[in-house]
Write a structure and sequence with these properties.
This protein is of the alpha/beta class. It has a single domain, classed as L-arginine/glycine Amidinotransferase, Chain A (5-stranded Propeller). It is built from ten helices and 15 strands. The strands form five sheets. It has a three-stranded mixed beta sheet, with helices on one face. α6 links the parallel β10 and β11. α1 packs across α10. It is globular, with a radius of gyration of 18 Å. The mean pLDDT is 93.
Amino acid sequence: MTTDREPQLASRVLMIRPARFESNPLTAQSNRFQGKTDLAPEALQAAALKEFDGLVDALRGAGIDVVVVDDTPEPHTPDSIFPNNWISLHADGRLVLYPMEAENRRTERRTDIIEYLHDELGLLVTDIVDLTAHENSGHYLEGTGSMVLDRTNRIAYACLSSRTHLDPLGDFAQRMNYRAVTFDAVDSDDVPIYHTNVLMNVGEKLAVICDAAIPRRDQRAAVLAQLQETGHDVISLSYAQLEAFAGNMLELRNDQGERVVAMSQQAYESLNAEQLAKLRANGRIITVPIDTIEMSAGGSVRCMLAEVHLPDA
């Protein structure tokens, strides 16, 4: 196990350019945010591709190093645009592969992408921590969707759901030297929230969270106390802002050393003046409209970004 402190913010992200994007029928039961568009498959793919390229351009324009890898038409991976669910990449050279609930998401895991990061980009890969065997017992942990990592303080925040189970979470925590802070979270209809990164994000000094989504007072108090103990200024989100994907933002660091907060246009427009003032004081905000991706697949900007913390070889 490592005890090294890791920087919270990445300056490089991995993104997967979709080939056959659509709302995944195998994830619809647990993700109430998806399936809200009736576009035909060709139109859906075209719209998602335009939104994807717009996000890439905005990130690069803000000084973020974006590694883009094309998805392949076969096997069909409708959610490949969300790579942070199958892989996380760490500053000590380790990468983690995660167990996924939907069978058609498991083929998103591609060894050629790992080889590309090492062989073509010259990044150090010291070890692969493979948690995928948990799929055999029906236990899942979908990467930095299931967990919101405070990398510097080695804390993994996780709301339990059909996609986030204690066994693989404990395995991750032990092998990666993290402490898990677990809780239950529900939407405004009291339905469990499928991924933790829908309701919260932890940056370097600022955290956002829809704490109203944590119904148990003791769990809510414990999460907020932990965020405050680690020195985070907390922005509390409403349910309406959660449903606009305001919790699904990601803080990065650009090539000038500045903090950059990336979020969708819908998320940005849901925030009030006081919240935006705090975010602007913290760093530069970049926004892009990705309405098709959000409505169809039920994920937003943070889901599309796998932070690359791997060092140079």
